[in-house]
Fold each of these.
Amino acid sequence: MTENIGVLGKKPSQRTGVERVVNAPLPTVYGKFQAVGYLDHDRGDEQVALVYGDIGTDQVLTRLHSECLTGDAFGSQHCECGDQLASALRAVAAEGAGVVVYLRGHEGRGIGLLAKLRAMALQAEGLDTVEANLALGLPVDARDYGVAAGILQDLGVESVRLMSNNPRKRDALQRHGIQVTEQVPLLIPPCESNITYLRTKRERLDHNLPHLDAVAHWS
């Protein structure tokens, strides 16, 4: 059977980047959002942006939230991800407008769910999050924010007030053409189960977490 080819005998080019697929109302406990669904043609991931109100184009209150099944769905106290997601959604609703981009494929800073659980098992034996990933032969942080920038650009966003404690996330967005006019802290009170994880974020991954000074007495 002859293969279907395009003009001048070339195969049709494969799509790249993000494509908006659907926009649906999503009432939540935080308020009424619009769930805008995207397909990432580069990685095959399905992505979603939760949009609240009339966001405009400039200085849009924005959170880029990396998928975390254990924290977001199960309420894990190993990290602060679930609380950060809830706080971001509340902040956007209180602001009256904003975006939370929920980034699938970012589980465990991009290493995947099972690898993250293996890393957590090593952390239970005394390694920190960085050491555990390296012990497994995995990158410390494999996340890419190009898809997030593409989603924001599709929504017409040119600049953001970014809810994040991670300067690398800010720098990545700016490299992809989204201006960050302000980095808004998203500080969650620590607990004894996540204090080591949070200290590692601050000391080894450059996260801005000044509130940890108040619990310096915790071992």
Amino acid sequence: MVKKILIHGSGHKAISWQETISYMKDQKNILCPDLYSILNGQDATYENLYTSFVEYCSRIDGQIHLVGLSLGGIIAMNYALDFPEKVKTLVVIGTPHKIPKVAFEIQNVIFRFFPKSVFKEMAFDKKDTFALGNSIKKLEIADRMQEIKCPVLVICGEKDRANKKSVYYFSENIENVALCMIEKTGHVVNEENPKELARILNEYYDGK
């Protein structure tokens, strides 16, 4: 069976997928890498994180289904562009098509006033969150969207205003794409509406 790899965002950990997975079929073939763990002690830059993810996927035989939320969606798209023969399907959730540089700068200013304890529930500690945010601003993949050839499902919460525009960008620039807007749901779809997300994913994979 084709493995499904679920990639969390920077504000959450791998455990954030737990409830969604509990409603999904074929659970034994679902993997949830912890982004902090796969870095193996390296600096938390996007380059190191992406390289670590590439190495993680290289240990999996055959094709894979990729599902990414926010930062996880960016990593998944990046991987699908670089290794098209490896990716059978791609699902991106609450994912921007272009790195919101200004938003990252504002976020970093706000984060400076947060105590370190706030970051315990996030994927990275305070220092690593800043490092990742600063390094990812250099990433440019929007102009490569038309190169994605595998089937793509774009999911977005109805209340996720920051990423709604990206949904339409994806629809216009990816050849084999399907769109799904989840009502009464914000950015963190896997935690806010896990049962509905699982239903959508189960239905999507039934056709693959």
Amino acid sequence: MKEPAQGGGFWSALRRGGVPSAIASVMGAPTAQQMAFIRSLTREQRRSEVLRTPLERLETVVFDLETTGFSAQHGDEILSFGAIRVVGDTIMEKEQFYTLVNPRTAIPEHITELTGITREMTDEALPLMDGLHDFMSFVGGRVLVAHASAHDKAFLNAALWKTSKVQLTHRVLDTMMLAKWLEPQQHQTYSLDELLTYQGIPIQGRHHALEDAKMTAKLWVAYVQEMLKRNVTNLADVYAHLSHA
């Protein structure tokens, strides 16, 4: 299974005054530093001014997680983070993030078959706190986008609470909900595969966190372009339409 190059965590952390986890470990810095960074980041979210940002300039991070199962409340854990930055309807191809993390639990055989992630791969991976810290550094204060986001939000919230005793406060947009508004009665399940096929987006590397994030980013861009055609100009407009969808 191909692992795309990881990006963003080091320089983002430096810009925000943090130290990446690998260097912090060498320097003997305590995990409290990572906790403090994550807590400060969550406190800065939900600012109302982002609602007025024109969609053409809205900065988002489209992300996906691979996990050991489907229930964060019943012991399933994150296996990998994948994300890519988008500005308006432009995908920033060079601004990508990917990392495996060690779930410290068994990986079911069907999950290995689905994702290609083995126990041997995760044994050498970052601890959850380090991977989460680097992912949140990459995200910064940007709006998050995911497909069927309830799953990803549940796992992010579980990881944030476990490591830092905070919950996700970032705004999260769901491409499934956008499709139900923009393309009503056009789909049977509104699955990622179905929507990608409908939009003519090639499907490749499914169930790899970064590849899924990149395909979801293309879907998000298609919806941004459609919303602009409908004179939906900012995030406040998006929320207003979704509330009536």
